[in-house]
Amino acid sequence: MIKGYIGVAIVWGNQVKEIALALEACLKDKQKEGYPVAPKICYDSTLGRQRGDLLQKIQSTFEDVKYAFVVLGEEEIALKITAIGETIDALFDGKTTVNRDNVKKMFDSFRTRTTQNVMLECGHFLNNLGLENMGIIVAYDRTSIRFEMPSDFPNAYKEPLHLQSIDGLTHEVIKERLQKTIADCLHNLDVHPHKDYIHDMSYHIDYSKLFSNEELIQIQGRKNIKEQFNAIDELWIQEVESLKRNDEIFVYILERIVFLSYFNIEYQWLDKALAQLNHSLTDDEKAIKRLVLLIKQYITVRNKHTQGKSYNYSEYLDIAEKLLKIKKTDFSGKAINIIARVVLNDYLGLAFRAGWESSPNSERNVQWLIESAVALRDCIHISENDTTSTGVSNLWHGYTYFNLSRTNKYLEENYAKTEYENIIIEKLRNLHIEIGHSSRLFSWRPDLDFACSCRETWAKNLSILGLPTVFEMPLKLEYVYAKIHSFKVLKNASSEEITEFETLFNEIVENYSGAPGLAKTVRRMIKEVRNDLSPTLEKKG
After folding, report:
1. pLDDT in tens, 109-146
2. 475 Cβ neighbours under 8 A, 6+ residues apart
3. pLDDT by residue (tens digit) across 351-366?
4. What are phi and psi of 476, to 5 degrees?
5. Is the separation of the CB atoms in 106 and 79 below 8 Å?
6. Packing angle between helix 516-540 and helix 469-490, nearest 10 degrees?
7. pLDDT by residue (tens digit) across 278-322?
8. Position with higher pLDDT, 194 vs 404
9. What are phi and psi of 48, to 5 degrees?
10. Which end of the chain is more exposed for a tag (fewer CB within 10 A), N or C?
11. Cα–Cα–Cα angle for 91, 97, 99, rounded to 5 degrees
12. pLDDT band at 486, cuts 50/70/90?
């Protein structure tokens, strides 16, 4: 999963600026190599030069860092009064002239040390990150006996740089001497380079890492559903604004776009992500940008549709045709990241079927359902052949098999097999998809049963995915929707089963106000299923 770049703090005293700048340059070099690290450095030496509460400034400036470099140099001269007597009068030994021996003793007692603000910052990171997430660079003359470290400073601090003197050393030489220090930082952070996410066919997706435990606590701690969605929106804005490359931003969007329709606020993260893009897009990046904008448009039309607002079915078909063009023209024959291909086919299948469903009977075209079935079957084929992702197939299958079952049911009920079967088979063969037995290929009931099974896993094992409640609730709602739909089309539910899912539905909507269109649909379907059940009970009576 793509998260925001990991912040790495660099704090330093005024005599070791060259080392701090070399550390920053090394980390920026690693950025160019594909490592997701972002140096955070204060160019005015220490934060102490700013006015106000220093500790508060440290906390706000470095609140999101995961690693810290602290460069300790010889910046101040310190002297303990007890080394030469109780007061400065001891220098004069009670006389009007200075006592030479005491003066020598005083100078011998001088110690050099790091500026105290840097030590305060160092203490902040020791407390918040731990020594294992710090690189402490002691840049002093190793032959000097004067450099003083705090007496209770950890003995296990990292191997000091021990530059005899940075005078005369070039920027590049200092960078070279820092390479092991930088390597230790990257190893500790467990980060790896990526150069091209869009064309990385082995890219690993793991939705259990969508949120860290700390992030979940922050989200769940908000007082209501709206505030929790705001917390997610704020987090994703912060993460996406730290990303540097177009390919990172696009895959970041595609990983999260499945949750877009569940937001019950005017989210800003997607617009911020698109605004973050560099203007010089490659052809593949332009195609993915069109894909993202079309999905956003589809969700807008779908929300108007499900909430009873004014829309035109041709809007769905226009989106579907543009998505089909991306698939045939822009993605065909290219090694495109699995998440982009799955998302494209999923929304392609949805848009064609939604256009068919919402159009007048006289204008419905079997070709729309054919394209829907092919796209959804392709979506399943891609995800079933992916061996790199964790916890994703079940999530995708719960959506795609459900939508495919609905498309195939429409085909079966409205058209003769001769109008679509061979066309679909030929299209799938052209996509190099194994057909198997054609009767299973077009049987909607097993697909519906499997989709319900996948969604039941969502409802019962959501904690495995590590999602916040505001995402768990709509996924449970999707499960109820699939079961009520199954009851409606199969007409095999008992009154007790309907009551069970109606109770679950009421519990969900009582605590969750998102996805109002889906909730409205489920409520209507529950009523229809109960009405369908009444004549059956009367007949049995």
Report:
1. 777 788 888 888 888 898 889 888 998 888 766 556 67
2. 455, 458, 459, 462, 467
3. 999 999 999 999 999 9
4. -65, -40
5. yes
6. 30
7. 888 999 999 999 999 999 999 999 988 888 888 899 999 999 999
8. 404
9. -65, -15
10. C
11. 40
12. very high
The pLDDT of residue 72 is 84
Q: How far apart are CA 32 and CA 388, in angstroms?
A: 25
Supply 324's token pair: 């089909």
| Better-predicted residue by pLDDT, 462 or 267 | 267
Average pLDDT over residues 457-462: 79
Rounded to the nearest angstrom, the gap between the alpha carbon of residue 1 and the centroid of all alpha carbons in its chain is 6
Rounded Cα–Cα distance for residues 7 and 23 (Å): 13
Between CA 403 and CA 410 the distance in angstroms is: 11
Q: What is the pTM of this model?
A: 0.81
Cβ-proximal residues to 412 (8 Å cutoff; 6+ apart), any chain: 442, 444
Nearest alpha carbon to residue 196 among 249, 247, 250: 247
- Residue 489 φ/ψ, nearest 5 degrees: -85, -30
Containing 77, the helix (H) or strand (E) segment is strand 76-78
Residue 253 has a pLDDT of 96
Ramachandran angles phi, psi of 49, nearest 5°:
-75, -15
Distance of CA 415 to the CA centre of its chain: 43
Amino acid letter, residue 359 = S
Segment 418-444 shows an average pLDDT of: 87
DSSP one-letter code for 424: H
Domain ranges of the chain: 6-75+114-189, 207-540
* b (16+ CB within 10 A) / e for 477-499: bbbbbbbbbbbebeeebeeeebe
The β-bridge partners of 67 are 8
Single-letter amino acid code for the residue at 114:
T
Distance CA 10, CA 20 (A): 7
Spell 156-189 as b/e; 16+ CB within 10 A means b: ebbeebebeebeebeeeebbebbeebbeebbeeb
Give the Cβ contact number of residue 10 at 10 Å.
24
The two three-digit tokens of residue 368, written as one number: 């729309």
pLDDT over 90 (residue 472): no
441 SS3 class? helix
Length of the chain: 541
Pick the CATH number of 6-75+114-189 from 3.30.160, 3.40.50, 1.10.1660, 1.10.3470: 3.40.50
